[in-house]
Design goal:
about 170 residues; about 70% helix
């Protein structure tokens, strides 16, 4: 009797999936997932544009409030708008001091309104009311500058991103 030698099947080798970058895994994939949840490319472009702008507001603590209000009012995805706006937090912190310094100059009362840490420390120890007035003017001026910039940034992002999301939606539909 001859024995048949049956070759042993080697276990299937599966290559490890390529690692996705943090940006792709945390930003791009959730946004693309929103396309599958019924959010139109136009709504997604508006969500991203508003999320970026609300994420850059130079008043700390109002990002969530503005984003939620806009999402509910415009019937956008609240979670997506909050995600995008809070992803902008590092850039918001980088732009906060320059916007406050420019805001202090814009809403200045004609006196030396240069907002520096040394001047602020001095004012807080000697005249806290003047420090509060300076911070109020700086915040108001920074907010007005942000508002002026957002008038340009929202349409630019919206009309720039809409064709990209349209193309992605068409590819997903195939």
């Amino acid at each position: 009797m001859s024995e048949q030698i049956i070759p042993q099947a080697s276990p299937p080798t599966t290559a490890a999936p390529p690692r996705m970058s943090w940006l792709r895994r945390r930003v791009l994939m959730p946004l693309l997932g929103l396309l599958q949840q019924g959010l139109s490319p136009t709504q997604l472009a508006l969500t991203v544009a508003l999320g970026v702008v609300f994420g850059l507001i130079p008043v700390l603590g109002v990002t969530t409030l503005f984003s939620t209000f806009a999402a509910v009012r415009l019937r956008l995805n609240v979670a997506a708008l909050l995600l995008i706006s809070h992803l902008m937090s590092p850039l918001q912190l980088l732009l906060l001091i320059p916007l406050l310094q420019l805001g202090a100059r814009v809403i200045g009362d004609g006196t030396d309104t240069e907002l520096t840490l040394t001047q602020l420390q001095h004012l807080l120890t000697t005249d806290w009311m003047e420090a509060a007035r300076l911070l109020w003017r700086a915040t108001l001026g920074g907010f007005l500058l942000w508002l002026l910039g957002s008038v340009v940034l929202v349409p630019s992002l919206f009309y720039g991103l809409r064709p990209v999301f349209d193309r992605i939606a068409r590819q997903k539909a195939k």
